[in-house]
Each structure stands twice: as structure tokens, then as C-alpha cells.
Amino acid sequence: MVRKLKHVERKLLRKVDFIDWPTNNVKELAIMKRFGIERHDYTIYNKMCHKIWKLSETVAALPVNDGFRNESSQQLMEKLYSIGLIKTKRLKKCNSVNVKAFCRRRLPVYMIQSGMFSGPLSMAGTAFCRRRLPVYMIQSGMFSGPLSMAVKYVKHGHIRVGPNVVTDPAFLVTRTHEDFISWTDNLRTKIDTYNDNRDDYKD
């Protein structure tokens, strides 16, 4: 049994917030600043990384000739590869998935890295953040500007993935979506009008 708290201890614990507390984790703050994500997104990606690691360790602990192991490891590797969190379909690579990998798949980051919007941001990092839409927009070179501008373009509805306009900068870009990211028609018309390249015949 736990002893009853003293009066002073109870008074001190009243001021402690057990849900949200400031952290001094320099690595976490650096990733949040670099990829323009909030702490909420970081904690979600971190939890997903831990679940992926735990799942891959559980699958790896099964006997090698087990049919369930082969099937489940194949599904896990295929899923992570299709999202873009791992580069090769190997079970060992599943343990190397981290928050940066997810951040790099964000749409604004992919826009900059793909050349659609090329900014001064260098994105040579790791797996959850990489798959978010803003990060992916930077990586793919779709965007030439700072990450904050890429995030604004996504939030204002100037980017479309396939036929759908995306307004969430946390949108993760899978490998199948990479070829379908483009500007919306309204924004393209405004840019062409500003540069005096607008074709009146198309209207």
C-alpha cells in the first residue's frame, strides 16, 4: 500500500500538470522546427514508430519456417514501403523507421524536395515526417520556398492530390500519390496572369 501524502506534498502536486509538461528534448524540438510540425503530430508519429518497432520485433521472433511469419512480415514491409517509410522491403529496415521518415512524407516537404517549390531547406533526414504532405512537396521539388510557405499553400487549398484538394499539411504522401500532386487550376491561372503568360484561348 502507498502511504498517504503529506499536506506539503499534496500542495505541490496541485501545481503539476501530468498531461502536458515542457520538455527539454533538443532532438525533438529540432525535428519539430525543421519540418514545421506541432508537438501533437510529433507524439503521434513517435507512438506509431514504437508500434512499428514492436510489431517487427514480434514478427522477427517467430520461427523462420512459420507461414504466419512470412505472410505478416510481407504485409508489414509492403505497407511501410508503399507509404515510403522504408527504401527496401527488408524486415530489418522496419526497425529503422523514425519520426523524420514520416515528416519527409508530408506534402509541403515533398513539394520542395520534388522541385515543385524549391526552397533553402535541405531534407536529408529520416521516416514519419517525410511522408507528410508539406514535407513531401518540398522533397519532390514541387515548391521553391521555405517550408512555412509550402504549409500555407496546402492550408489555403492550392494543392491537389489527384482530383481532391488537400488542405491538411499532415497529409502523408504515399508512393502511389507522388505522381498525382499538382497545383489547383485557380492558382495556376493567377500565376499565369501575374507573369503575363495567360492564354485567353483556354478560357
Automatic annotation (TrEMBL):
Residues 4-104 form the Small ribosomal subunit protein uS4 N-terminal domain. It is found in: Nucleus, Nucleolus. The keyword Nucleus applies. Pfam families: Ribosomal_S4, S4. GO terms for molecular function: rRNA binding; snoRNA binding. Keywords: Nucleus, Ribonucleoprotein, Ribosome biogenesis, RNA-binding. InterPro entries: Ribosomal_uS4 (IPR022801), Ribosomal_uS4_N (IPR001912), S4_RNA-bd (IPR002942). GO terms for cellular component: Mpp10 complex; small-subunit processome. PANTHER family: 30S 40S RIBOSOMAL PROTEIN, U3 SMALL NUCLEOLAR RIBONUCLEOPROTEIN PROTEIN IMP3. This is Small ribosomal subunit protein uS4 N-terminal domain-containing protein. It comes from Medioppia subpectinata. The lineage of its organism: Eukaryota, Metazoa, Ecdysozoa, Arthropoda, Chelicerata.
